[in-house]
């Protein structure tokens, strides 16, 4: 496939896009999908071209953080067929958040239709198979209106944009690509707070810990449980995984985001590979007993951990072939090169 042309909104200048060199950055694509909730109903605006938004200055999303977002990837298969991965799981997580933020749910059919339409409309921007890049899909949800009081909005915008992206952590995945993380003494979520919903405010509050880690040369911050600072929670925008005593373990906590990738990897581990998996509290000190560790997410896929530092303590890990097995299995499902025994691939119809 020849390189597609890069679209600059406004003046429509065309340039080449080198998919293999992309980082995790925003590149405007021609179309986005939008629906608006007003007077109790969702009205579909469909595909639109304007990447800018005009919303009332009093909008709840601007002042009180009534905002949610999702993250998914769309891949091009070897036969040029286009696949999303478990979009209903993202729809359900968004709606869990909508209920928590006291807004209306987005009908699942509307969510999936939006993903299909926006991916198909921007299909020249879906990276070529084997380039290592993917089309990142960003559905988001805003409470809007003329308002100043601290109360939920009556009107909402649901929009989806897409952007081709490369690896989330520099270097991507590979036996020589172990990442280093720093234990943060700050929290991203409260013990009974909103860590389990994908609300924008959770991420604004992760900027300081994230920056602190990055300024010291680490890829991201590792969060501990906000009550006792004893147990591992998650890493930046990714869940934590470890191998101990032959078992794949992951933290059990109500303040981590339930990751679609993690749930899928646990299913692959137990069903495809026959490994024992365990979701339970994991103390920071247990790192010393682990064979290997990794983090996972849509953006991060599977990223294995080479080092975790906590002040003057540190734990180091070697590459573990089992991360490669999990990485290959999930990528195989997502990109159409492997079997899909769970029915997780969602083919995007190209009209
Ligand atoms: N944890 C946080 C805080 C995240 O933002 C994300 C990204 O969505 C994840 C974990 C991974 O979740 P998923 O695998 O559904 O992308
Ligand atoms: C994702 O993995 O899709 C995320 O949402 C991470 C992100 C905050 C870039």
Brief synopsis:
The chain has helices at residues 60-63, 87-100, 108-121, 200-204, 207-215, 260-272, 321-335, and strands at 5-7, 14-16, 32-38, 41-48, 67-69, 72-76, 82-85, 134-144, 155-165, 179-183, 220-224, 232-235, 238-244, 247-251, 276-280, 292-297, 301-310, 313-316, 345-347.
The count of DSSP E runs of length 2 or more, i.e. the number of strands, is 19
CATH class of the largest domain: Alpha Beta
Morphology call:
globular
CATH superfamily of the largest domain: D-amino Acid Aminotransferase, subunit A, domain 2
- Poorly predicted sequence stretches spanning 5 or more consecutive residues: 1-15
Instruction: Name the helicity range.
Output: 10-25%
Bound molecules: pyridoxal-5'-phosphate, 2-OXO-4-methylpentanoic acid
The radius of gyration computed from the alpha-carbon positions, rounded to a whole number of angstroms, is 20 Å
Helix tally equals 7
> Any idea how many domains?
2
CATH architecture of the largest domain: Alpha-Beta Barrel
Provide the succession of SSEs: EEEEHEEEHHEEEHHEEEEHEEEEHE
